[in-house]
Each structure stands twice: as C-alpha cells, then as structure tokens.
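Preliminary data (for renewal application), glutamine complex.
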Amino acid sequence: MVCSHILGFPRMGAQREWKTALETYWKSGSGAACAEPDAESLVRMGKQLRASHWALQKKAGLDWVTVGDFACYDHVLNHIQLLGCEPARFGFTEDMSELDRYFAMARGSLREEGGQALSMTKWFDTNYHYLVPEFLPDTVFSLHSERLFDEVKEAQALGYPVKAVLLGPVSFLYLGREKTDGFDRLSLLPKLLPVYREILERLHREGVRWVQIDEPVLGLDIGEKWLAVYEKTYAELAKEPVRLLLTTYFSSLSGHIGMICRLPVDGLHVDAVRGAADLQEIAARWPSEKVLSVGVIDGRNIWKADLDKALALLKAPELARRGNLWIAPSCSLLHVPFSLEAETAMDFRLKQCLAFAVEKLDEVHALKEALEKGDAAIGKALDSSRKTVAFRKGDWVHNAQLAKRVGKLAEDADRRKSVFSIRQALQRKRFRLPAFPTTTIGSFPQTPEIRSVRASFKRGILDEAGYREAMQKEIAFCIAQQEKLGLDVFVHGEPERNDMVEYFAEFLDGMAMTANGWVQSYGSRCVKPPVIYGDVSRPKPMTVEWIRYAQSLTDKPVKAMLTGPVTILQWSFVRDDEKRSVVADQIALAIRDEVADLERAGVGIVQIDEPGLREGLPLRRRNWREYLDWACRAFRIASCGVEDETQVHTHMCYAEFNDIMPDIAALDADVITLEASRGDMTLLQGFSDFRYPNEVGPGVYDIHSPRVPSVKEIVGLLKQASAVIPADRLWVNPDCGLKTRQWKEAFAALENMVKSARLMRETV
Ligand code: GLN
Ligand code: ZN
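Predicted structure:
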C-alpha cells in the first residue's frame, strides 16, 4: 500500500489572514479603539484556517490530514504549554487564560521583572524562528493543554482521517536552553517521558491511528550523549499502542542511520532531497515490514517537481519492493508560500515552473497515483512536469556571456591590490577621520510617508519624476540630520528600499519577485523571498544615482550601501539546476560591477552587508569548509575590484563568530561593523583572541528597542571594546540599520553616540 501525506502546512492562510487577525487582536488587547477580534473570534479564525487547510489536503487526495502543525505563534511554544513547562519567572496566575499566557511568553508581559519574552532563534537553517524553551533543574512537566486534542476533534468532526504531529522529546529538550549553570537539560528526560506517554495514550483513545513524532535534531551533529538516549526514549514511547512515524528532515542522517534503524517505531520519514545520498542505505536497513515515508518533493524550495526523476527514485528496487511506502514532501510546507493562484501578474514562463504549498499537495498525490496505477494515470501531470523540465533548460535562464565571465575569472579576482596595512595608510590620508570615527549602518527611520510614496510609485499613481523628487527630499533630510549630529561618515538613508534583498532583486536579471509569496518568519511576521530562476546579471546601475545625489549635498564622505552576494542568495529561493556557489559568483559579479560604477562616480567608501553569511552555514559541520570557501570568495569577488584608497565596509548582525574567525578575517573588509551591544561586547573577545587585523565597529546602541542609551552607557561599552581591540582600529556605530525606529529616539541616541565618541577621543 502506498500512502500520501504532508508533515505540515503553512499557517498564515492564502492572504495572510492569520497575520491580520493576530495583529488586530494584539492591538485591541493594548486598548486601541477596535474591539475586534476578541479572543473568541481569533480562536474561530484559527479553526476556519485549519479546516480550510485540511480540506485542501483532502481534496488533493492525501490519505491523512495532518493535525497539530498549526500554531497561533509558534509550534515549539505550543509544546511548552502542552507539556506544562511554562517558565515560573512569568508568574502566571490561575485566572490567566491559556491564550494570554501564550502571548505573554511570545511577546513579553508587563511584569517588572522576569516578564521578557522567551528568546527566539532560527529553526535549523530556515528563516523561521522558534521560541526557545527554558529549563531549570526543578522544571516539571505535566499534560497541560487541551489544544492538540481539541484540534484532533475538529478534524474528526469534519470526517477526516487524522495523523497528529508532535515535536519529539529529545528534539524538544535539545532545542531548549538551561537557564542556570551546572545543570544539563538532558537530565530532565525521565521527567518528560511520562507526559509524552500520556499524550500518546490520549491520542490513541481519541481514535488517532498514527502520530508523526518529529526528531529533526537527528540531522545535526548532536553528539554521543544525545544520540545515546534515543533507543531508551523510543522503547519507552513504543509501549503506547498508537503507531509512531519518526520524522527527520533538513539534513542527511549519515552517521546515525544504524541507531535510527534500531528504534522501535512503526515508521520513519526521511528527507530524500537533502538526504538523497542516505536513501539506499536506509532502504536496505529499515525493517521492510515498517512504514518508510520518503520525502521526495522539496519542501524547502518552490520549483515544480521533476516527476520522472521522483518516480525513478521511488521505483528503485530497494524501495519498490517495500509494502509500506509513504510519499511526502521532504519537510513541513511551512517554509514555502501558500499557493500560486495569487500570482496573477507573474511572467507565465516562470509561473509554470513553480509549485507552492497547495500545488505540492497535488504533486505528492500524483506520485502515489503513478505508483499504484501506473504512469498513465497521471498523464497530464507528467506531461506538464516534462514540459517544465525541458523549458527550464531553455535560453531564457541562461546567459552565455556571463557563464564565460564566471569561467574566466582571474585567480586574484578575489584579492585586493595591496595588503590591509598599505590600504589603511592610504585611506587615512584620504579621509582624515578622527579617532573613533562615527557612522551608521545604512537605513534611517522609514516613516509612513516614505512607505506611501514608494507604494504610490509602484502602483503607478506617482510618476518617476515625482518619486525621484520625494526620495531626494528624504535623502537631503537624512544628510541634514547627520550634519547636525556631527557624524563622520554619512549614509543616504535607504529611503528607496523596502527591503535590502528585494530592492536588488528588482534590478537584477535572473531574479523575480512574487506578489504574494509570503513565508512565516516568526509570529505574525512574514518575508517574501525573491526567486532566483536564471543566471543573475546586472543590466544597469542600481544605487549610483542616489549615492551621487547624497554626496553632492555634503563634504563628508557618504558611504554607499549594497547587499552582499551571500545574503542575496541566502534570503532567496534559489534555482535547483545550478550549484549555489555558481549563483553566488554571478551575484558577486553584479555587485562588483556596481562597486566599480560607484568608485567611478567618486564614491570613496562602500559597505557590503552580509548578515546572511553566518546563517548560511550548513547544518553538518563537515560541510562548513566547502561553504565558507565559496561564500567568502563570493564576498571578496564583489568587494575586491577597487583601488587601495577605496574603503570597503561590511556589516553583520547578531551572531557568534568565534568558530569562523579565520574566514571573517579573510573577507579582508577594511572595516567590519557588528551587532554587539546586547552581549556587552563579549562578541569582540573572538576578534581579540584571533588578533583580527582590520578595523571594527562593534554596535554600541541596540536598535531593536526605542530606548535611548545614555552617554555613560555608550562610553562604558566603548571602554570595554578598547580593552580588547586597539583604540585606533575602533569605529563607533549602532548595532544595525535604524529603519524600524522613530526619528526622535534615533536622533537622541545618535547624539549620545557622537558625544561618547568625542569623550573617547580625549582619552587617546
Ligand atoms: N544597511 C542595512 C540597513 O541599515 C543593513 C540591514 C541589516 O543588516 N539587516 O538597514
Ligand atoms: Zn544588521
């Protein structure tokens, strides 16, 4: 028997209805005029969305609807409530509703102490962020929420066969954090397992036949200690009569396969896209009477599947002779947009190559049909898939000239003409900046007026001349503010950019934007990644006009602002018919040409932002080297085409760099600015230990908060910084761009920042 299913579905709805509902609800809670929707209507909306998502799964012909993947904010937070381990620091009282406690943990409560929101971190290597469970030695667990069981009942009432989803106990602990030293969260496992058993028992009693239990950490290098608990854990859970489908995704399972194949569960799901190389071994070792769920449809990308290729894989002898084959996307569809239906304005050629979540349901089912009834049963789908495959090889995605250029790139294309010390001397002579030079990271507050001008221009209500005039006015305003503040290196303020990747995607050939391709990032926040569908090239300058205008207004150097190749790649859906490293080189050349044009226009300082570089690191450490080699080279190709006198900055947001310090140094940017204020400059230790040779601007002002830091505080941070980095190599800047701040607070904070730099100058 062949079955078809999915591991999870996007939550936001076709038109991001859930985002709207959440944000309206939060506003009403904070006392704003609108009373709708109250908690009841929010709950009703969630119910409607789930019902419509199940209906889509049913309509596509899947064998189960998946229940438990929906979350008001985040699925890990759902588990914190389900398992009854809400941190005591929130001081929740009996009379608080489950939903109020839920949002308090997600967004913070007003409590003086201990009310700050749970911290948020990236879900594996996706752009989704989960809330991190907090553990203490006395953390206890208990079945504490009816939500999952209620949702099961909802689906059953609609007549659907249910497969419920849980995040597995080992992954749940692994993804959390200890809130005190000297204790190991893994020691909580014996207290956690009885609650899992109780949940499984309840689900069984409610008539659920299969439970999908996600253990995605099995695709990480979790270490012996964690691997060692799996067999006992699942032996314990297997005592419950409900059937368990152990799900893994995002990565190869290599190294853990033997252990996994011994686990006493009834089924195993593997990511056959990222873990394609493991498939043969797993098929050979996983007991043949058990279910094997093969994730052949790519759940991380938006390309229509090559059904022939997928079928060839599924028909391979070691799979075909299995009696219990399930077919699925590689992972939850949470990471792709809802449906192509909304893409009414998209180039038809591109559109016919894509499949979003709804379309992927059909692909999963088509594969099952073909296996059961023969290829002829899905003639139409196969036809369309074949056309797409042929079409994607066509001229429209290839650029022969560019391929030649990438192929012929000089060996030293990623090296500056001279070493840093020579460049530094020349740049010092050129810019004559004071010690502790002050600057910002690029964007200034994006007011509602700026947003509405951009929107009007996009909709054709405002013409090009009107748009340019409005943007220039804004740039002039930013320049005037910076003069007033007395900053040393200016920026134009980025008013013309809605987003640091989308802005460039709109200029570059080979990249396209979607109208409605939203993907949840966290809570109600969604991002709309561009699609890289072909060879990437730059038909014309993208930023020169704005920077030149800004520079015409001041004698201070204006730093041009670009997004780096790795970040553009990392924050897009990337073509799957070309190596990522090649796409990175192509984008790098486009940025390199832009840098050259800027230099020709007289610009002396160029910043190339790479906040995506660190997060692009592969999940398995053994793949780091290869990634870092091509990613760092792409940055250098983009940045190294300049004269010694031209100063290259790069910027990266909050991240640990200690483990990749040699690679960060090898980027050879003249200046690197970092988000550092939240960690009390501890981030700099790695730079110091490594004797990082170039200049550094550790952020001294947390731009995530409206709070204005005092001079005393900033001077304190600068003193801490100069204790580890020589003062003559330090810059003074905020953590990141000021786009989300209000002018009033940004101006006050920058005023204090400039004052602090001046005080520091007196000390050298
Ligand atoms: N230059 C960008 C800005 O200032 C950088 C944003 C980022 O690092 N995320 O907004
Ligand atoms: Zn940043």
